[in-house]
Design a protein that fits this description.
This protein has 215 residues and is mainly alpha-helical. The protein contains nine helices and no strands. Helix 3 runs antiparallel to helix 4 and helix 7 packs antiparallel against helix 8. The longest helix has 64 residues. It is elongated, with a radius of gyration of 28 Å. It starts with a helix and ends with a helix.
C-alpha cells in the first residue's frame, strides 16, 4: 500500500470513527436545521398574516382620518403602532400623528412621533421622509445645527434634492449664506423642471443671492 493510499485509508477510518462517536450530535443538528427552516417558514407566514391584518386596520384608520373622527383616529392609530410597530402602516400613522401635533402646536409631541417613525420605518422612503420632516421642524424651533446634521444623514437618490433644500434652510438660519446658496443650487440640479418644489427653491436661492450682492 502506498503512502497516499495509507493516508486515504486512515482518513476514511477517522471519518467513520468520528461519525460513530458523534452520530447523536449530527442527528440533533439536522433536526435543529430542519426546525429552523420550518420556523423561518412559519415566521414568514406569521409576518404575511400580520401585514394583512395591519393593512385592514390601516384602512379603517384612513377612513377615520377622512371623516375627521379624532377619537377614532387616536384609538386606531395607537392600536396600529402598538400591535404592528414594524409595519409600514405604523410609521405612516406616526407621520400623521406628527402632522396633527404640529397643527395643534405640540412641537415636542410631533418630534417624538417623527423619531418613532424614523426608528420603526421598514421602508427607506418613509425613513427619509421622517428625517426630513423632523429636520424642518427643528429649523422652525431654532435648532438649525441639529437639523443640518440630520439632513446630512438622509440617503436615497430620490430624496437628495429635498435634503439639499433642507440643508440650505438650516444654513440660512445659521447665517452661512454662501453655503446655503450652494445647497439650493444642489437641490435645483436634482429637481425636474416641472417639480413643484423647484420654483420655491429658486425663489429662496435668488432672494438670498440678491441679498448677498446688495450687502
Amino acid at each position: 500500500m502506498s503512502l497516499e493510499e495509507l493516508d486515504e485509508h486512515e482518513r476514511s477510518e477517522h471519518v467513520r470513527e468520528w461519525v460513530r462517536k458523534n452520530i447523536g450530535s449530527i442527528v440533533l443538528g439536522l433536526v435543529a436545521g430542519i426546525g429552523a427552516i420550518y420556523g423561518m417558514e412559519q415566521w414568514g407566514h406569521y409576518r404575511q398574516r400580520n401585514a394583512g391584518l395591519a393593512g385592514d386596520d390601516y384602512r379603517v384608520y384612513a377612513e377615520a382620518v377622512i371623516k375627521k373622527d379624532a377619537t377614532a383616529v387616536a384609538t386606531l392609530g395607537k392600536s396600529l403602532r402598538d400591535k404592528y410597530p414594524d409595519s409600514p402602516y405604523a410609521s405612516m400613522v406616526a407621520l400623521n400623528d406628527a402632522a396633527t401635533a404640529v397643527t395643534d402646536g405640540k412641537t415636542d409631541a410631533a418630534l417624538t412621533s417623527l423619531e418613532w417613525a424614523e426608528a420603526h420605518a421598514t421602508m427607506p422612503e418613509v425613513k427619509s421622509l421622517s428625517m426630513l420632516r423632523r429636520a424642518r421642524l427643528l429649523i422652525a424651533i431654532g435648532k438649525a445645527d441639529a437639523a443640518l446634521e440630520l439632513a446630512n444623514k438622509v440617503e436615497g437618490d430620490g430624496f437628495k434634492p429635498l435634503a439639499a433644500e433642507v440643508r440650505g434652510d438650516a444654513l440660512l438660519a445659521l447665517k452661512r449664506n454662501s453655503e446655503a446658496i450652494a445647497a439650493y443650487d444642489e437641490a435645483l440640479v436634482g429637481l425636474d423642471s416641472g417639480a413643484t418644489r423647484r420654483s420655491i427653491v429658486e425663489m429662496k436661492r435668488d432672494d438670498l443671492a440678491s441679498t448677498k450682492v446688495g450687502s
